[in-house]
């Protein structure tokens, strides 16, 4: 159940992040430089929050 919730939060975050990011930043070379690293780090943080220790 926790893994399903983790993936649901990741999908929700990615869709909301790219929706608002596309509203303010045009798609060009900066899109790759800025958006994908931010998305990668956020997904890794979400993964660490939902991982059992």
Q: Secondary-structure element sequence? A: HH
Q: How many DSSP E strands? A: 0
Strand fraction band? under 5%
N/C terminus separation: 16 Å
Low-confidence stretches: none
Helix fraction? over 70%
Q: How many individual helices?
A: 2
Sheet of most strands: none
Rg, alpha carbons:
13 Å
* Average pLDDT, all residues: 87
What structural class is derived from the secondary structure elements? mainly alpha
The coarse overall form would be elongated
List the SSEs and their pairings.
Elements (H helix, E strand, L loop, with lengths): L1 H23 L4 H22 L3
How would you describe the overall organization of this protein?
By secondary structure, the chain is mainly alpha-helical. The protein is built from two helices and no strands. The chain has helices at 2-24, 29-50. Helix 1 (2-24) packs antiparallel against helix 2. The protein starts with a helix and ends with a helix. The model has no long low-confidence stretch (mean pLDDT 87).
Task: Record keyword descriptors for this entry.
mainly alpha; 53 residues; elongated; 2 helices
Summed up, what is this model?
The chain has 53 residues and is mostly helical. The chain contains two helices and no strands.
């Amino acid at each position: 159940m926790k893994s399903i919730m983790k993936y649901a939060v990741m999908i929700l975050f990615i869709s909301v992040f790219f929706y608002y990011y596309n509203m303010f930043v045009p798609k060009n070379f900066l899109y790759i430089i800025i958006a994908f690293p931010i998305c990668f780090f956020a997904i890794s943080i979400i993964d660490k929050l939902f991982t059992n220790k």
